[in-house]
Amino acid sequence: MNAVTRAHRRPPTIRPRPTRAVAVALVAATSLAASACSGDDDADAGAPDFAATTTTEGSRPPAPASPDEVDGDTGGPPSTEGGADVAVTVAVAATDLGETLVDGDARTLYVFDEDTPGEPTTCTAACADAWPPLAVDGAPVLGDGLDPAAFTTITRPGGGAQLAVDGRPLYRFAGDAAPGDTTGHGSQGLWWAVGPDGAPRPESSSGGLGY
Fold it and tell me: Could you say which DSSP state residue 187 is in?
């Protein structure tokens, strides 16, 4: 009896079937991966587009104006046109004597009969304390209605310039307490307030105080 040799066959490999838990884990991993990809897309969508906001030389907004440009100041010297205030040396004001010459503070101005027109003043020392000269530094500034040809300056004995009208030096009076006072008018029969034309105002009975 022939021996029959049977070939031994390798038993088939049996692969274990995935359990339900494994399947759930695979689904979860797939969802996370998809979510991550979607998150990258959202981040890219929210990021600023620097290329889009880059300005070119021609599209830059203008620089803000400087304060000088806003105010119209071009850097030049200030202008006195357009009603700018200027300190007045002599002007005209209404007093109890009528229209009278006054200084820039509206103090009445006087002339002295012992002065010689066009000559230096004779009122110095104690006299000048009681009758301060109307000193000027540079060109005098005249108020409205005054004739520039009527006003000149003279040199005082101690130096300095004094304004004169029709060649007669002009003075204030220390006894005048307020603008518009004319208490020096007629003092000693030598001191007189003057009108816009340089003529002494009419004599009054104030008497006045001398020096």
Answer: G
- Contact between 155 and 161 under an 8 Å Cβ cutoff? The reply is yes
Verdict on whether the full-model pTM lies above 0.85: no
Domain ranges of the chain: 90-193
Determine the Cα–Cα distance for residues 123 and 162; give it in Å rounded to an integer: 12
At residue 90's C-alpha, the angle toward residues 89 and 94, to 5°, is: 140
Q: Are 163 and 157 in contact (CB under 8 A)?
A: no
pLDDT at site 146: 96
- CB-based contact 173:110 (threshold 8 Å): yes
Tell me whether strands 151-155 and 161-165 are parallel, antiparallel or unpaired: antiparallel
Residue 90 and residue 108: Cα distance in Å, rounded? 10
Cα 201 to chain centroid distance, Å, stands at: 43
